[in-house]
Design brief:
Elements (H helix, E strand, L loop, with lengths): L5 H8 L3 E5 L18 H14 L16 H10 L5 H11 L9 H9 L2 E4 L5 H5 L7 E2 L17 E4 L14 H8 L4 H16 L1 E5 L6 H14 L6 E5 L10 E5 L5 H14 L2
Parallel strand pairs: 1-2, 1-5, 2-4, 3-4, 5-6, 6-7
Helix pairs in contact: 2-4, 5-10
Length: about 270
């Protein structure tokens, strides 16, 4: 049994906990064609396979999947004007439709733990698990819902990198990342302002997140530099040793993925005692 950090208990008791979910929680989900979503690399492999099936020349890109991060391959895809972005988004819209046979119990528990969820996932696992979140999700084009982050009791699903149901909202290619994290566009500015406000004022628990998005990490580092000893505590459930650059996080260590459920159950038991 893991020892739950005091600051995490306090955040639960004060209703100040925000859950941040990454691709790890969707890894084993299957789509309507019975294919596993797995991680970002698998999505890129399937994008290339689909492009190839439509007659696009991608043989040179296929071997790069094993050698480079997915974002590098996506950069090469984006820079090739011969590859149809419309075909890519149409493929993703089909690939990410989830099977109704998936088990969403963990997602339901997370919503029970915190009514505020942030995710970088494009899929609709939380909307399947908690239908009311369909009316309370925010992403590019729906950022008016972000006003709910100040209301402790209002549900909010903050899809930082967009939703596959609205291709224009997705942060997929390098240019999309630049538009979100380096742009003065009002929508992007609003998203990052809310994210920073949450980092400053709330406690965040990361689950299924590899912390590979340097743009997000840099925001946390910037806040920590400004807040210094007044910086909020943030936590991550992980089976890895944290890199020294992630010193804004306190790890809750696990040996395998199955332990996440028991930790969430323990946190829920704390919440139910309030």
């Amino acid at each position: 049994m893991n020892k739950i950090p005091t600051d995490l208990i306090k955040a639960i008791n004060d209703n100040d906990l925000i859950v941040f979910v990454g691709a790890g929680l969707s890894f084993n989900f299957k789509n309507v064609d019975n294919q596993k979503l797995e991680g970002w690399s698998n999505l890129v492999v399937n994008i290339l396979n689909d492009l190839q099936s439509k007659g696009h020349e991608v043989n040179d890109l296929m071997p790069l999947i094993k050698r480079y991060d997915p974002i590098k391959v996506l950069d090469l895809i984006e820079s090739d004007s011969e590859l149809s972005k419309k075909d890519i988004y149409n493929f993703i819209k089909k690939f990410l439709i989830l099977s109704d046979k998936n088990d969403y119990d963990l997602h339901k528990k997370l919503f029970e733990l915190s009514k505020k969820i942030i995710t970088t996932n494009y899929d609709t696992a939380f909307e399947e698990a908690v239908p009311e979140l369909r009316r309370s999700k925010a992403y590019k084009g729906r950022n008016y819902e972000l006003t709910k982050h100040k209301d402790k009791d209002a549900p909010l699903l903050f899809k930082l990198h967009g939703c596959f149901e609205d291709a224009d909202s997705m942060v997929l290619f390098p240019s999309n990342y630049k538009n979100l994290y380096e742009n003065q566009d009002r929508d992007a500015e609003h998203s990052l302002l809310v994210l920073k406000n949450i980092i400053i004022n709330k406690t965040i628990l990361f689950i299924g997140v590899g912390m590979g998005d340097f743009q997000i990490n840099n925001i946390f580092k910037e806040v920590k530099r400004l807040q210094r000893e007044y910086n909020q505590k943030h936590f991550i459930i992980t089976n890895k040793t944290l890199d020294s650059t992630l010193d804004f996080l306190t790890p809750i260590n696990i040996s395998n993925f199955d332990e996440i459920n028991s930790i969430i159950d323990e946190l829920l038991s704390i919440k139910k005692k309030i």
